[in-house]
Amino acid sequence: MLSFLKKFRACLDQLLLSFCGVIIILLVAAVSWQVFSRYILNNPSTFTDEISRFMMIWLGLLGASFLFGKNGHLAITLLADSLSPKMYVALQIVIGILVIAFAYLAMINGGIALMGRTMFQISPALRIPMGYVYGILPLSALLICIYVVLNIIDLLFPQHPAEALNNNSSEEK
Amino acid sequence: MDISVGAWLLCLFSLMIAFSVPIAVAIALSSLLVMFMVLPVQVASVTAGQKLVTGVDSFSLLAIPFFVLAGNIMNSGGIAERLVNFAKLLVGRMPGSIAHVNILSNMLFGAVSGSAVAAAAAVGKTVAPQFEKDGYDKSFATAVNVASCPTGLLIPPSNSLIVFSVVSGGTSVAALFVAGYVPGILMGLSCMIVAYFIARKRGYGSQADSCPSLKVALRVVWQAIPSLGLIVVVIGGIIGGVFTATEGACIAVLYSFCLSLCYRSLSMSDMWIICKETAEITGIMLFLVGASSIMSWAMAFTGLPSIISDWMLSVSDNPIIIFIMMNIILLIIGMFMDLTPALLIFTPIFMPIALQLGMHPIHFAMMIVFNLCIGIATPPVGTALFVGCSVSGARIERVIRAILPFCAVLIGTLMLITYVPWLSLFLPRMFGLIN
User: What is the pTM of this model?
Assistant: First the structure.
């Protein structure tokens, strides 16, 4: 079971990171095109500004969800680092619950309501419903919840005794 | 709104920060909970979700992933090494030579990329062996690198200045970039002065290198020209209004990519790894920006900034004292919090007060970024400090002691920046970017 979860996490990591990497390349392409079309073609593109903003929103939130899995978000860990291993796990579980609470309230609950309201609001240049752009909120919230649960399972059932320590040190970033 | 809601926001936020909750979550969740107190649950959640998205929905912010990407390419693309060689040519024969080389390289690296941590890593790695060869104390060497790497956050291109531009409601990025040169260079000079006196006292690097032959010198310059050309193309283009900061950042990516291809230092698989690393850093930054746009909405809603400004102005209405108070608060915050979150949280609070006292937004930007730059080099939480120590292998406790004289002089320079607006404003005025 635990090894299955490990594989699942590795697949999810790979999928998310590759997707984000592709977005970055597309962003460079889109903005280059914007400069190129303005100066070389003398025909400024109308859609690159909007499409790159939407891609960046997706990139930001997907990247952020991925980082919840790696404990990569900035935190002041002075307290957590000074705790006994048991208390450390307890604190991480409480933090995990807070993260899930935010993801659920603002991003799933609020996000889905927001999607419903903006499905008929069409973006000016690309003519797509804004609801699709806001769709990233529930999607990334789901990913955040999955990662937080996976992290908590790893903490509760360390496969190697060293693993708990590893988690500890990766936190310091 | 009454004071108690604003107080709740502060308490909840500080409590979560103290309990090691990721800063972005602490910002967003404390604001959301405070919104629940005054708004219906559904309205509050929808607003929070919307702010999270609209907060990052800005074309200017797109410059951040691009500058991070360009910095990462330069970091592994052999550009740092060429800049270090160039710096060695310029300042390599003063007392404490390699310390000055390190500082100048950090400034040069800062002038082509926008991140302090990338500079600390790339330059630190390159100069560490030379420090060792010349018999420098390891903790002093690390302190030099750590104290001078934030120059890159003031010297354009700078991600911090872009964040400031977005959070302050659209201050001109071009004007901020031009203004950043003088404070950035002053920061570098302050570090050089400290390094000079310490090196002279301890007799470091007194055995001067022989003067390089003209041929060698010309080759070093020739090798550095393409890297330095980035400054002319990107910053020149942004200041001259040829393209926006975001487009300039995109050009910087293409430029550094082509350069690395020419130097053959980067394979396609390296490139793919760099893209993924960039996605991670971007995720951290953008989520913070989105979360803090929830907080600034909640703050405006609870009237917290005006409560704080009333309190500060009730202590004194003398600008000199208010600016001292701001700087002390920011220095303390900077010790515990990373630059970006601190900038995102405190700009909306302090900027209205500063403007009310007649400070120019550009001058305020220089003051707050310079101040928080000191914070990333100081314990207990300093990203640059951690990276610098891990690159050089020095012990953090010893580096902390070695870095104190640098901090003292930097705080002196900060006072200069705070009370002499001319330093921050004359360059953008000269270019006609502000009136």
Answer: 0.89
Which amino acid does the sequence have at B398?
R
In the predicted structure, residue A55 carries a pLDDT above the cut 90: yes
In this predicted model, what pLDDT tens digit does every residue of B189-226 receive, in sequence order?
999 999 999 988 888 766 556 677 888 889 888 888 88
Selected for mutation to probe chain A from B12, B20, B295, B386 (highest A CB count within 10 Å) is B20
Query: DSSP letters of A67-91?
Result: HHHHT-S----HHHHTS-HHHHHHH
Total beta-carbon pairs less than 8 A apart between chain A and chain B: 199
Question: What is the least distance, in Å, from the CA of B53 to any CA of chain A?
Answer: 7
CA distance B164 to B341: 11
What is the rounded distance in angstroms from the CA atom of residue A56 to the CA atom of residue A20? 10
Does the beta-carbon distance from A172 to B58 stay under 8 Å? no
Confidence of residue B114 (pLDDT cuts 50, 70, 90): confident
| Residue A166 in this model has a pLDDT that exceeds 70 | no
ipTM given for this complex: 0.89
Q: What crossing angle do the helices spanning B268-302 and A48-70 adopt, rounded to 10°?
A: 90
The token pair at B44 is: 């509050």
Cβ–Cβ < 8 Å for B279, A17: yes
B43/B280 Cα distance (integer angstroms): 31
Give me chain B's average pLDDT, please.
89
> In B19-62, which ranges are continuous DSSP H helix?
23-38, 41-54
Q: How would you classify residue A127: left for phi > 0, otherwise alpha for psi between -120 and 50, otherwise beta?
A: left
Conformation bin of residue B318: beta by default, left when phi > 0, alpha when psi is -120 to 50: beta
- Which of the given ranges, A7-11, B78-82, B313-317, has the highest pLDDT on average? A7-11
pLDDT at B50 over 80: yes
Q: Residue A53 is nearest to which of B18, B57, B253, comparing CB atoms?
A: B57
Residue B212 carries which DSSP code?
P
Q: Do A63 and B287 touch (CB under 8 A)?
A: yes
Which SS3 state, helix, strand or coil, does residue B378 take?
A: coil
The minimum CA-CA distance between B317 and chain A, rounded to whole Å, is 34
Q: How far apart are CA B116 and CA B266, in angstroms?
A: 22
CA nearest to B305, candidates B400, B119, B417, B167: B167
Query: Which of B11, B203, B23 lies closest to B99, judged by CA?
Result: B203
